[in-house]
Specification:
By secondary structure, the chain is α+β, with helices and mostly antiparallel strands. The protein is 29% helix and 32% strand. The protein has a 4-stranded antiparallel beta sheet with strand order 1-2-3-4, with helices on one face. The radius of gyration is 14 Å and the shape is globular. The termini are far apart.
């Protein structure tokens, strides 16, 4: 039995793979962090469509909990679906912390929206997804 991208997403949110951070609100959003989060969300859609974990390379920290969770679920995905993941209303709310709404659209017309905090780490000057958690 295969998992849908939505099932994977909800499973990851419920898995507790994140840790709490508290950061003061940023006055000036960093476009690099938002661009990295946006690119990662799009790469996630490519992964959901193909079950090809390499689609996440360059967007996710390979030693991070989010990548690890996706990697553990790859064997349950059935490739061939049509998915679009989009990030809206994104803002940087702390160093390496992007908050926004992610909408997952499937080829079947089922849209689901999640309010997420996307936690990034900076590796060699590039922002990568460390983990994702439900926004407060």
């Amino acid at each position: 039995m295969g998992l849908t991208a939505s099932t994977v997403l909800v499973g990851m949110l419920g898995a507790g793979l994140w840790y709490a951070t508290t950061s003061p609100a940023y006055e000036a959003a960093d476009a690099g962090e938002i661009a990295a989060a946006t690119g990662a969300v799009r790469a996630w859609a490519g992964f959901a469509e193909t079950a090809d974990i390499t689609k996440l390379s360059g967007w996710f920290a390979l030693d991070g909990p989010q990548y690890s969770q996706l990697e553990s679920e790859v064997m349950f995905l059935v490739p061939g679906g049509s998915y679009e993941f989009s990030l809206a209303d994104a803002s940087v709310v702390g160093p390496g912390l992007v908050r926004g709404s992610v909408t997952v659209t499937t080829g079947r017309g089922n849209d689901e929206t999640y309010d997420w905090d996307i936690e990034l780490i900076n590796e060699d000057g590039r922002w990568l997804v460390w983990t994702v958690r439900k926004s407060p």
